[in-house]
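The protein record quoted in full:
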Amino acid sequence: MLSLTAVMVASFAVIFFMQFQLTRSADAERLAEIPIDVITNAMLERRNANAQAYGTMGPDGATAGAIGEGDPSGADAAGGISGGEGLSGGTGGQSESSQRPESPFIDNSGPDLALDYSSFFVLNVDTQGELSAFSRVELSDDQYIKAAEMARGHNSGVSKTGEIKLGGSHWLYSYSARVAGNMPLSDESLSQIALSGLPVNESIVFLNIDSSDKAMKRLLLNMFILGACVIAGLFIISLLLSNRALKPTEEGLRRQRRFIADASHELKTPLAIIDANAEAALAEPAESAVWIGRIADESERMRGLIEDLLFLARSEDAAAVPLETLPFDLSAAAEREIGSVEAVLFERGITLESKMPSGSGVIVNSDSARVRQVILILLDNAMKYTDRGGHITVETGIVRRFGFIKVSNTGEGISAADMPHIFDRFYRADRSRTSQGGSAAPGGYGLGLSIAKAIAERAGGKISAESENGLTAFTVELPLA
Protein backbone atom coordinates (compact mmCIF):
# COMPACT_ATOMS: atom_id res chain seq x y z
CA MET A 1 0.00 0.00 0.00
CA LEU A 2 2.91 2.36 0.71
CA SER A 3 4.30 1.64 -2.75
CA LEU A 4 0.91 2.20 -4.39
CA THR A 5 0.44 5.41 -2.42
CA ALA A 6 3.88 6.67 -3.44
CA VAL A 7 3.22 5.90 -7.11
CA MET A 8 -0.20 7.59 -6.97
CA VAL A 9 1.17 10.69 -5.23
CA ALA A 10 3.98 10.93 -7.77
CA SER A 11 1.52 10.52 -10.66
CA PHE A 12 -0.84 13.15 -9.29
CA ALA A 13 2.08 15.50 -8.66
CA VAL A 14 3.20 15.17 -12.28
CA ILE A 15 -0.36 15.72 -13.52
CA PHE A 16 -0.81 18.75 -11.27
CA PHE A 17 2.54 20.23 -12.34
CA MET A 18 1.71 19.75 -16.03
CA GLN A 19 -1.72 21.31 -15.57
CA PHE A 20 -0.18 24.18 -13.61
CA GLN A 21 2.27 24.84 -16.44
CA LEU A 22 -0.54 24.73 -19.00
CA THR A 23 -2.61 27.14 -16.91
CA ARG A 24 0.28 29.56 -16.52
CA SER A 25 1.01 29.33 -20.25
CA ALA A 26 -2.63 30.17 -20.99
CA ASP A 27 -2.43 33.13 -18.58
CA ALA A 28 0.75 34.32 -20.28
CA GLU A 29 -0.95 34.08 -23.68
CA ARG A 30 -3.89 36.13 -22.37
CA LEU A 31 -1.45 38.66 -20.97
CA ALA A 32 0.42 38.88 -24.28
CA GLU A 33 -2.83 39.49 -26.17
CA ILE A 34 -3.54 42.70 -24.23
CA PRO A 35 -2.68 45.54 -26.69
CA ILE A 36 -0.32 47.37 -24.36
CA ASP A 37 1.03 49.61 -27.15
CA VAL A 38 -2.45 50.79 -28.10
CA ILE A 39 -3.35 51.41 -24.48
CA THR A 40 -0.08 53.21 -23.74
CA ASN A 41 -0.45 55.49 -26.76
CA ALA A 42 -4.07 56.24 -25.78
CA MET A 43 -2.91 57.07 -22.27
CA LEU A 44 -0.19 59.39 -23.54
CA GLU A 45 -2.56 61.17 -25.91
CA ARG A 46 -5.20 61.61 -23.19
CA ARG A 47 -2.63 62.83 -20.69
CA ASN A 48 -1.19 65.31 -23.15
CA ALA A 49 -4.68 66.54 -23.95
CA ASN A 50 -5.43 66.96 -20.25
CA ALA A 51 -2.13 68.68 -19.66
CA GLN A 52 -2.79 71.16 -22.49
CA ALA A 53 -6.29 71.78 -21.19
CA TYR A 54 -5.03 72.55 -17.67
CA GLY A 55 -1.82 74.23 -18.85
CA THR A 56 0.48 71.98 -16.79
CA MET A 57 2.26 70.19 -19.58
CA GLY A 58 6.03 70.15 -19.33
CA PRO A 59 8.51 70.71 -22.11
CA ASP A 60 8.35 67.04 -23.24
CA GLY A 61 4.59 66.65 -22.97
CA ALA A 62 4.61 65.14 -19.42
CA THR A 63 2.50 66.14 -16.44
CA ALA A 64 3.81 67.12 -13.08
CA GLY A 65 3.84 63.86 -11.02
CA ALA A 66 6.99 61.71 -11.16
CA ILE A 67 8.40 58.56 -9.58
CA GLY A 68 11.43 59.59 -7.58
CA GLU A 69 12.74 60.18 -4.11
CA GLY A 70 9.71 62.03 -2.72
CA ASP A 71 8.16 62.32 0.66
CA PRO A 72 6.27 59.16 1.70
CA SER A 73 3.55 61.15 3.42
CA GLY A 74 0.95 61.20 0.63
CA ALA A 75 -0.41 63.80 -1.86
CA ASP A 76 1.54 66.98 -2.59
CA ALA A 77 0.29 70.49 -3.41
CA ALA A 78 0.09 69.78 -7.11
CA GLY A 79 -2.22 66.80 -6.69
CA GLY A 80 0.48 64.16 -7.42
CA ILE A 81 0.95 61.08 -5.23
CA SER A 82 4.22 60.91 -3.35
CA GLY A 83 6.05 57.98 -1.80
CA GLY A 84 9.46 56.45 -1.16
CA GLU A 85 9.61 55.52 -4.82
CA GLY A 86 6.18 56.86 -5.71
CA LEU A 87 4.98 60.07 -7.22
CA SER A 88 7.01 63.06 -6.10
CA GLY A 89 5.91 66.70 -5.95
CA GLY A 90 5.13 68.41 -9.26
CA THR A 91 5.39 71.96 -10.55
CA GLY A 92 1.70 72.84 -10.64
CA GLY A 93 -0.05 75.01 -8.06
CA GLN A 94 -3.06 74.57 -5.85
CA SER A 95 -5.40 76.23 -8.35
CA GLU A 96 -4.39 73.74 -10.98
CA SER A 97 -4.75 70.84 -8.58
CA SER A 98 -8.29 71.81 -7.74
CA GLN A 99 -9.32 71.47 -11.36
CA ARG A 100 -7.86 67.96 -11.87
CA PRO A 101 -9.62 64.63 -11.39
CA GLU A 102 -9.47 62.93 -7.99
CA SER A 103 -6.83 60.47 -9.30
CA PRO A 104 -5.00 62.43 -11.97
CA PHE A 105 -3.05 59.44 -13.30
CA ILE A 106 -5.92 56.92 -13.56
CA ASP A 107 -7.72 56.58 -16.91
CA ASN A 108 -10.72 54.27 -17.28
CA SER A 109 -11.09 54.87 -20.99
CA GLY A 110 -9.25 53.05 -23.75
CA PRO A 111 -9.84 50.35 -26.38
CA ASP A 112 -12.68 47.87 -25.88
CA LEU A 113 -11.48 44.37 -24.92
CA ALA A 114 -13.14 41.02 -24.43
CA LEU A 115 -14.79 40.21 -21.13
CA ASP A 116 -11.88 37.86 -20.28
CA TYR A 117 -9.68 40.93 -19.94
CA SER A 118 -11.91 42.81 -17.53
CA SER A 119 -9.44 42.35 -14.63
CA PHE A 120 -6.25 44.07 -15.72
CA PHE A 121 -4.50 47.41 -15.56
CA VAL A 122 -1.60 49.05 -17.36
CA LEU A 123 0.97 51.33 -15.72
CA ASN A 124 3.23 53.68 -17.66
CA VAL A 125 6.24 55.64 -16.44
CA ASP A 126 7.29 58.20 -19.00
CA THR A 127 10.72 59.67 -19.63
CA GLN A 128 10.13 62.25 -16.89
CA GLY A 129 9.31 59.53 -14.32
CA GLU A 130 5.58 60.33 -14.15
CA LEU A 131 3.26 57.40 -13.46
CA SER A 132 -0.05 57.03 -15.27
CA ALA A 133 -2.48 54.11 -15.34
CA PHE A 134 -5.20 52.56 -17.43
CA SER A 135 -7.30 50.29 -15.20
CA ARG A 136 -10.28 47.98 -15.40
CA VAL A 137 -10.15 47.21 -11.66
CA GLU A 138 -10.76 49.20 -8.50
CA LEU A 139 -7.48 49.79 -6.69
CA SER A 140 -6.20 52.68 -4.63
CA ASP A 141 -3.49 55.07 -5.78
CA ASP A 142 -1.07 53.56 -3.31
CA GLN A 143 -1.71 50.08 -4.68
CA TYR A 144 -0.96 51.20 -8.24
CA ILE A 145 2.26 52.82 -7.05
CA LYS A 146 3.18 49.69 -5.06
CA ALA A 147 2.52 47.51 -8.12
CA ALA A 148 4.85 49.68 -10.20
CA GLU A 149 7.53 49.56 -7.53
CA MET A 150 7.32 45.76 -7.19
CA ALA A 151 7.45 45.19 -10.95
CA ARG A 152 10.29 47.69 -11.45
CA GLY A 153 12.16 46.14 -8.53
CA HIS A 154 11.98 42.67 -10.09
CA ASN A 155 13.39 43.80 -13.44
CA SER A 156 16.61 45.33 -14.72
CA GLY A 157 15.28 46.99 -17.86
CA VAL A 158 14.73 44.07 -20.29
CA SER A 159 11.19 42.84 -21.15
CA LYS A 160 10.17 40.24 -18.59
CA THR A 161 7.17 38.67 -16.91
CA GLY A 162 6.56 37.84 -13.30
CA GLU A 163 3.98 37.46 -10.54
CA ILE A 164 3.10 39.63 -7.55
CA LYS A 165 0.58 39.63 -4.71
CA LEU A 166 -1.37 42.89 -4.51
CA GLY A 167 -4.57 43.77 -2.67
CA GLY A 168 -5.15 40.14 -1.68
CA SER A 169 -5.07 39.09 -5.35
CA HIS A 170 -2.56 37.34 -7.57
CA TRP A 171 -1.33 39.24 -10.62
CA LEU A 172 0.72 38.21 -13.61
CA TYR A 173 2.60 41.12 -15.16
CA SER A 174 4.68 41.86 -18.21
CA TYR A 175 7.34 44.56 -17.92
CA SER A 176 8.71 46.34 -21.01
CA ALA A 177 10.91 49.38 -21.47
CA ARG A 178 11.41 51.67 -24.46
CA VAL A 179 13.86 54.43 -25.22
CA ALA A 180 12.81 57.71 -26.74
CA GLY A 181 10.84 57.31 -29.94
CA ASN A 182 9.20 54.10 -28.58
CA MET A 183 12.15 51.98 -29.66
CA PRO A 184 11.91 48.69 -27.70
CA LEU A 185 14.60 48.20 -25.12
CA SER A 186 16.82 45.20 -25.82
CA ASP A 187 20.23 43.90 -24.90
CA GLU A 188 21.71 45.87 -27.82
CA SER A 189 20.11 49.16 -26.80
CA LEU A 190 21.26 48.79 -23.21
CA SER A 191 24.77 49.76 -24.21
CA GLN A 192 23.39 52.71 -26.20
CA ILE A 193 21.54 53.93 -23.10
CA ALA A 194 24.65 53.49 -20.96
CA LEU A 195 26.74 55.56 -23.40
CA SER A 196 24.30 58.28 -24.37
CA GLY A 197 22.04 58.38 -21.33
CA LEU A 198 18.82 58.11 -23.36
CA PRO A 199 15.67 58.45 -21.25
CA VAL A 200 13.65 55.26 -20.63
CA ASN A 201 9.87 54.90 -21.00
CA GLU A 202 8.43 51.94 -19.00
CA SER A 203 5.14 50.11 -19.46
CA ILE A 204 3.79 47.33 -17.20
CA VAL A 205 0.60 45.39 -17.80
CA PHE A 206 -0.96 43.41 -14.93
CA LEU A 207 -3.49 40.56 -15.38
CA ASN A 208 -5.49 39.14 -12.48
CA ILE A 209 -5.04 35.34 -12.30
CA ASP A 210 -7.15 34.63 -9.20
CA SER A 211 -9.53 32.53 -11.29
CA SER A 212 -6.63 30.36 -12.46
CA ASP A 213 -5.43 29.94 -8.88
CA LYS A 214 -8.93 28.93 -7.78
CA ALA A 215 -9.11 26.41 -10.60
CA MET A 216 -5.76 24.93 -9.57
CA LYS A 217 -6.88 24.77 -5.93
CA ARG A 218 -10.07 22.99 -6.97
CA LEU A 219 -7.99 20.59 -9.05
CA LEU A 220 -5.69 19.93 -6.09
CA LEU A 221 -8.66 19.33 -3.78
CA ASN A 222 -10.35 17.02 -6.29
CA MET A 223 -7.11 15.09 -6.78
CA PHE A 224 -6.74 14.76 -3.01
CA ILE A 225 -10.31 13.48 -2.62
CA LEU A 226 -9.97 11.15 -5.61
CA GLY A 227 -6.60 9.89 -4.40
CA ALA A 228 -7.94 9.26 -0.90
CA CYS A 229 -10.94 7.35 -2.31
CA VAL A 230 -8.76 5.31 -4.66
CA ILE A 231 -6.26 4.48 -1.91
CA ALA A 232 -9.09 3.49 0.44
CA GLY A 233 -10.65 1.34 -2.30
CA LEU A 234 -7.30 -0.28 -3.11
CA PHE A 235 -6.72 -0.95 0.57
CA ILE A 236 -10.08 -2.70 0.94
CA ILE A 237 -9.56 -4.70 -2.26
CA SER A 238 -6.00 -5.59 -1.26
CA LEU A 239 -7.17 -6.65 2.17
CA LEU A 240 -9.86 -8.89 0.73
CA LEU A 241 -7.56 -10.38 -1.90
CA SER A 242 -4.79 -10.86 0.65
CA ASN A 243 -7.11 -12.71 2.98
CA ARG A 244 -8.33 -14.85 0.10
CA ALA A 245 -4.77 -15.50 -1.06
CA LEU A 246 -3.65 -16.43 2.43
CA LYS A 247 -6.42 -18.96 2.99
CA PRO A 248 -4.69 -21.71 0.92
CA THR A 249 -1.45 -20.98 2.78
CA GLU A 250 -3.16 -21.17 6.13
CA GLU A 251 -4.92 -24.37 5.05
CA GLY A 252 -1.61 -25.78 3.86
CA LEU A 253 0.06 -25.00 7.18
CA ARG A 254 -2.86 -26.54 9.05
CA ARG A 255 -2.70 -29.69 6.94
CA GLN A 256 1.06 -29.82 7.35
CA ARG A 257 0.78 -29.66 11.14
CA ARG A 258 -1.89 -32.33 11.08
CA PHE A 259 0.22 -34.44 8.69
CA ILE A 260 3.23 -34.28 11.01
CA ALA A 261 1.11 -35.15 14.02
CA ASP A 262 -0.56 -38.08 12.21
CA ALA A 263 2.73 -39.36 10.80
CA SER A 264 4.29 -39.25 14.25
CA HIS A 265 1.32 -41.13 15.67
CA GLU A 266 1.42 -43.80 12.95
CA LEU A 267 5.16 -44.29 13.36
CA LYS A 268 4.84 -44.37 17.12
CA THR A 269 2.58 -47.44 17.06
CA PRO A 270 4.90 -49.90 15.24
CA LEU A 271 7.88 -48.57 17.17
CA ALA A 272 6.08 -49.29 20.43
CA ILE A 273 5.24 -52.82 19.23
CA ILE A 274 8.83 -53.41 18.13
CA ASP A 275 10.12 -52.18 21.48
CA ALA A 276 7.70 -54.38 23.41
CA ASN A 277 8.59 -57.50 21.37
CA ALA A 278 12.29 -56.82 21.73
CA GLU A 279 11.95 -56.65 25.51
CA ALA A 280 9.93 -59.86 25.47
CA ALA A 281 12.57 -61.58 23.36
CA LEU A 282 15.27 -60.56 25.79
CA ALA A 283 13.21 -61.68 28.78
CA GLU A 284 12.29 -65.08 27.28
CA PRO A 285 15.14 -66.26 25.05
CA ALA A 286 13.42 -69.60 24.48
CA GLU A 287 10.56 -67.91 22.61
CA SER A 288 12.65 -65.23 20.95
CA ALA A 289 11.81 -66.51 17.47
CA VAL A 290 8.15 -65.59 17.96
CA TRP A 291 8.97 -62.10 19.19
CA ILE A 292 11.53 -61.54 16.45
CA GLY A 293 8.92 -62.54 13.86
CA ARG A 294 6.54 -59.94 15.19
CA ILE A 295 9.32 -57.37 15.15
CA ALA A 296 9.92 -58.21 11.49
CA ASP A 297 6.22 -57.78 10.70
CA GLU A 298 6.07 -54.35 12.32
CA SER A 299 9.32 -53.35 10.63
CA GLU A 300 7.75 -54.26 7.32
CA ARG A 301 4.70 -52.18 8.11
CA MET A 302 6.92 -49.22 9.06
CA ARG A 303 8.89 -49.62 5.87
CA GLY A 304 5.70 -49.51 3.85
CA LEU A 305 4.53 -46.41 5.67
CA ILE A 306 7.84 -44.64 5.07
CA GLU A 307 7.80 -45.61 1.38
CA ASP A 308 4.28 -44.24 1.04
CA LEU A 309 5.28 -41.00 2.69
CA LEU A 310 8.32 -40.74 0.45
CA PHE A 311 6.19 -41.36 -2.63
CA LEU A 312 3.71 -38.66 -1.66
CA ALA A 313 6.52 -36.20 -0.99
CA ARG A 314 8.15 -36.98 -4.34
CA SER A 315 4.86 -36.90 -6.24
CA GLU A 316 4.78 -33.12 -5.83
CA ASP A 317 7.86 -32.98 -8.04
CA ALA A 318 7.11 -34.39 -11.51
CA ALA A 319 10.77 -35.19 -12.20
CA ALA A 320 11.11 -37.20 -8.98
CA VAL A 321 8.38 -39.75 -9.88
CA PRO A 322 8.81 -40.75 -13.52
CA LEU A 323 5.91 -42.68 -15.08
CA GLU A 324 6.12 -45.07 -18.01
CA THR A 325 3.30 -44.08 -20.36
CA LEU A 326 2.58 -47.15 -22.45
CA PRO A 327 -0.73 -48.44 -23.80
CA PHE A 328 -2.34 -51.21 -21.76
CA ASP A 329 -5.79 -52.72 -21.18
CA LEU A 330 -7.42 -51.13 -18.14
CA SER A 331 -10.12 -53.85 -18.03
CA ALA A 332 -7.53 -56.62 -17.96
CA ALA A 333 -5.62 -54.87 -15.17
CA ALA A 334 -8.85 -54.58 -13.15
CA GLU A 335 -9.64 -58.29 -13.65
CA ARG A 336 -6.14 -59.18 -12.44
CA GLU A 337 -6.43 -57.17 -9.24
CA ILE A 338 -9.93 -58.51 -8.57
CA GLY A 339 -8.52 -62.03 -8.71
CA SER A 340 -5.91 -61.16 -6.07
CA VAL A 341 -8.55 -60.17 -3.50
CA GLU A 342 -11.22 -62.79 -4.18
CA ALA A 343 -10.17 -64.89 -1.21
CA VAL A 344 -10.42 -61.95 1.18
CA LEU A 345 -13.83 -61.02 -0.24
CA PHE A 346 -15.11 -64.57 0.23
CA GLU A 347 -13.78 -64.69 3.80
CA ARG A 348 -15.61 -61.46 4.67
CA GLY A 349 -18.83 -62.47 2.96
CA ILE A 350 -18.71 -59.68 0.39
CA THR A 351 -19.96 -60.20 -3.14
CA LEU A 352 -18.27 -58.56 -6.12
CA GLU A 353 -19.64 -57.79 -9.58
CA SER A 354 -17.51 -56.70 -12.50
CA LYS A 355 -18.81 -54.81 -15.53
CA MET A 356 -16.27 -54.86 -18.33
CA PRO A 357 -16.85 -53.94 -21.98
CA SER A 358 -16.70 -56.84 -24.40
CA GLY A 359 -14.15 -56.94 -27.17
CA SER A 360 -10.79 -55.17 -27.03
CA GLY A 361 -11.40 -53.61 -23.59
CA VAL A 362 -10.34 -50.11 -22.54
CA ILE A 363 -6.86 -49.18 -23.78
CA VAL A 364 -5.31 -46.30 -21.84
CA ASN A 365 -1.91 -44.68 -22.06
CA SER A 366 -0.28 -44.72 -18.63
CA ASP A 367 2.02 -46.61 -16.25
CA SER A 368 0.41 -50.02 -15.83
CA ALA A 369 2.15 -50.81 -12.51
CA ARG A 370 1.02 -47.53 -10.92
CA VAL A 371 -2.51 -47.90 -12.26
CA ARG A 372 -2.75 -51.44 -10.81
CA GLN A 373 -1.65 -49.93 -7.49
CA VAL A 374 -4.52 -47.44 -7.74
CA ILE A 375 -7.02 -50.24 -8.51
CA LEU A 376 -5.77 -52.22 -5.54
CA ILE A 377 -6.07 -49.19 -3.25
CA LEU A 378 -9.67 -48.64 -4.35
CA LEU A 379 -10.55 -52.32 -3.83
CA ASP A 380 -8.89 -52.35 -0.41
CA ASN A 381 -10.74 -49.15 0.60
CA ALA A 382 -14.05 -50.63 -0.57
CA MET A 383 -13.46 -53.86 1.41
CA LYS A 384 -12.64 -51.95 4.62
CA TYR A 385 -15.86 -49.96 4.52
CA THR A 386 -18.25 -52.69 3.29
CA ASP A 387 -20.05 -54.64 5.97
CA ARG A 388 -20.40 -58.40 5.85
CA GLY A 389 -22.95 -59.33 3.25
CA GLY A 390 -22.31 -56.13 1.35
CA HIS A 391 -21.66 -55.70 -2.34
CA ILE A 392 -18.81 -54.24 -4.44
CA THR A 393 -19.04 -53.33 -8.13
CA VAL A 394 -16.08 -52.73 -10.46
CA GLU A 395 -16.86 -51.11 -13.80
CA THR A 396 -14.64 -49.98 -16.68
CA GLY A 397 -15.54 -48.08 -19.81
CA ILE A 398 -14.93 -45.04 -21.99
CA VAL A 399 -16.31 -41.53 -21.50
CA ARG A 400 -15.34 -38.71 -23.82
CA ARG A 401 -11.57 -39.11 -24.44
CA PHE A 402 -10.86 -40.98 -21.23
CA GLY A 403 -11.01 -44.54 -20.06
CA PHE A 404 -12.36 -45.00 -16.56
CA ILE A 405 -12.57 -47.52 -13.78
CA LYS A 406 -15.26 -47.15 -11.15
CA VAL A 407 -15.26 -49.01 -7.83
CA SER A 408 -18.44 -48.70 -5.76
CA ASN A 409 -19.50 -50.36 -2.54
CA THR A 410 -22.47 -50.49 -0.21
CA GLY A 411 -22.18 -49.33 3.38
CA GLU A 412 -22.65 -46.31 5.57
CA GLY A 413 -21.24 -43.99 2.95
CA ILE A 414 -19.24 -40.79 3.39
CA SER A 415 -20.75 -37.79 5.08
CA ALA A 416 -20.84 -34.40 3.42
CA ALA A 417 -18.45 -33.04 6.05
CA ASP A 418 -15.87 -35.75 5.31
CA MET A 419 -16.15 -35.64 1.51
CA PRO A 420 -13.79 -32.64 0.95
CA HIS A 421 -11.05 -34.34 3.02
CA ILE A 422 -11.08 -37.95 1.90
CA PHE A 423 -7.99 -37.49 -0.29
CA ASP A 424 -6.01 -35.79 2.50
CA ARG A 425 -3.05 -37.64 3.96
CA PHE A 426 -3.81 -39.67 7.10
CA TYR A 427 -7.49 -38.80 6.85
CA ARG A 428 -10.03 -41.51 7.55
CA ALA A 429 -13.74 -40.85 7.53
CA ASP A 430 -14.30 -43.23 10.41
CA ARG A 431 -11.41 -42.80 12.83
CA SER A 432 -12.82 -45.43 15.17
CA ARG A 433 -11.77 -48.08 12.66
CA THR A 434 -8.15 -49.17 12.74
CA SER A 435 -6.15 -50.56 9.89
CA GLN A 436 -6.55 -54.23 9.35
CA GLY A 437 -3.38 -56.22 9.35
CA GLY A 438 -2.52 -57.99 6.16
CA SER A 439 -4.58 -55.72 3.98
CA ALA A 440 -4.08 -56.23 0.32
CA ALA A 441 -2.70 -52.77 -0.32
CA PRO A 442 -1.21 -49.83 1.53
CA GLY A 443 -3.87 -47.60 2.89
CA GLY A 444 -4.29 -48.72 6.50
CA TYR A 445 -2.66 -45.48 7.56
CA GLY A 446 -5.00 -43.19 5.70
CA LEU A 447 -2.55 -42.72 2.82
CA GLY A 448 -4.12 -44.95 0.19
CA LEU A 449 -6.49 -42.45 -1.40
CA SER A 450 -3.83 -39.73 -1.28
CA ILE A 451 -1.48 -42.03 -3.19
CA ALA A 452 -4.24 -42.91 -5.68
CA LYS A 453 -4.93 -39.23 -6.33
CA ALA A 454 -1.24 -38.46 -6.80
CA ILE A 455 -0.81 -41.30 -9.30
CA ALA A 456 -3.95 -40.39 -11.26
CA GLU A 457 -2.97 -36.75 -11.57
CA ARG A 458 0.63 -37.60 -12.50
CA ALA A 459 -0.75 -39.86 -15.26
CA GLY A 460 -2.76 -36.97 -16.73
CA GLY A 461 -6.08 -38.15 -15.32
CA LYS A 462 -8.21 -37.45 -12.28
CA ILE A 463 -10.00 -39.21 -9.44
CA SER A 464 -13.39 -38.32 -7.97
CA ALA A 465 -15.71 -39.64 -5.28
CA GLU A 466 -19.43 -39.60 -4.63
CA SER A 467 -21.56 -41.04 -1.87
CA GLU A 468 -25.34 -41.14 -1.82
CA ASN A 469 -28.04 -43.39 -0.38
CA GLY A 470 -25.54 -45.77 1.18
CA LEU A 471 -23.58 -46.26 -2.03
CA THR A 472 -20.01 -44.91 -2.29
CA ALA A 473 -18.16 -44.80 -5.62
CA PHE A 474 -14.62 -43.79 -6.63
CA THR A 475 -13.92 -43.13 -10.29
CA VAL A 476 -10.51 -42.82 -11.93
CA GLU A 477 -10.24 -41.38 -15.47
CA LEU A 478 -7.10 -41.88 -17.59
CA PRO A 479 -6.34 -40.63 -21.12
CA LEU A 480 -7.02 -43.10 -23.89
CA ALA A 481 -4.11 -44.42 -25.94
The first strand starts at residue 66 and ends at 67. Residues 426 and 445 are 6 Å apart (CA to CA).
